[in-house]
Every structure is written in C-alpha cells, then in structure tokens.
Design goal:
Number of domains: 1
Helix content: 10-25%
Oligomer: single chain
Number of strands: 9
Shape: globular
Distance between the termini: 28 Å
Number of helices: 3
Strand content: 25-35%
Strand order of the largest sheet: 7-6-2-1-9
Order of helices and strands: HEEEEEHEEHEE
Largest sheet: 5 strands, mixed
C-alpha cells in the first residue's frame, strides 16, 4: 500500500489517499452502473462522499471504471495529461484528455465537471478488473488551455460527420460519464 502525494502549490496540501480509503459500496455501485455503458465509463463525484473516512474537502474526482482492463496493462501512474480531438462511435469529433501515458481518453466534459483547475490537480480513482487506485495529477492553467483548445477544435468540426475516421489506435475511449451525488 502506497500513499500518493503530488507536488502542489504550498497553499494547497496534497490529499493523502490510498485504495483502502475508497468506500467498497460506492465502488461496487459504480461497477454495476458502468456495466450499462459496456464496462467503461467515468463517474464524477465529490472526493469526501466516496471515502470510508471523514475528509473536509469540496474537491471532486473522476472515477474511471475499466472493468475489462487489468491494472498492469495501463500506466495509470504517469503524471502527464495531454489532449486530443477524437471521434465518437458515430464519427462526431469530441475533445478528450489523455491519461495513463496517452492510453485512456476521457471526455473533456467529464474533466470539466471535476473542476481540477480549482485545486490545480485532477483526482482519479481508477477502478480496474483487479484493483483500485487513487491518483492525483498536476493540472495547470496550461492543461486547462490545452483542453479548451481541443474543445474549440472539436466544436468547430462538429458538422463533419465521418464514421469511417475511427481507427483502432490502442487508446481506450471513456466517453460516457455520469455524476454521483
């Protein structure tokens, strides 16, 4: 068991979270809900509401549920967040944040709902087939701007419907998301 601590500005201490802090009933619930989305989806939740212990924070996190993926198959500890305009299954452009060394594409809308710029970090609870893991990623104004640019590009091309553009590039798309209240 390893606690995670991310380098952050001095006025924002890192949250000390590990996999044992996640509420088991919450994790079971998001796994079941995610089955409705084909086994992969993101959930946006208040960090304090998904823990087994009391924590005084209003910070949110993205719960990335990948029920068919083993944790060893993804470099989820990689701190880099990049952006990309991808295509939905229907061929429409969508802005995404790329996590896990570019292997996981999460909808920009889900990232925006987590409000990571407020605390300059993006919290992610990874729920894999074999384990769960809390991670924190630095989220800067530059990251926010990069995501905004990707959103603008996707929006500017929204009229371009092309279902033949999707290719199997090894990136797992997590486009579906829901909120936990």
């Amino acid at each position: 068991m390893q606690d995670l601590q991310t380098q952050l500005p001095q006025n924002r201490p890192a949250l000390q979270l590990n996999e044992h802090d996640a509420d088991a009933d919450f994790v079971d619930g998001v796994r079941k809900t995610t089955s409705l989305y084909g086994g992969k989806a993101a959930c946006i939740a208040n960090v304090a509401k998904i823990l087994t212990r009391e924590l005084d924070t209003t910070e949110k996190c993205i719960v990335v549920v990948l029920t068919d993926v083993a944790s060893e198959d993804i470099d989820y500890q990689s701190q880099a967040i990049s952006t990309q305009v991808r295509r939905t299954d229907d061929g429409f452009p969508i802005a995404c944040a790329l996590l896990a060394n570019g292997r996981i594409a999460v909808s920009a809308q889900a990232v925006n709902l987590a409000q990571p710029l407020d605390c300059q970090r993006l919290h992610v609870l990874w729920v894999f087939r074999d384990k769960i893991s809390f991670q924190q990623y630095p989220y800067t104004e530059q990251t926010e701007e990069d995501l905004w640019v990707a959103c603008c590009v996707a929006d500017g091309h929204r009229h371009e419907y092309d279902p033949t553009v999707n290719v199997d590039d090894g990136i797992i798309d997590v486009r579906d998301y829901f909120a936990f209240r």
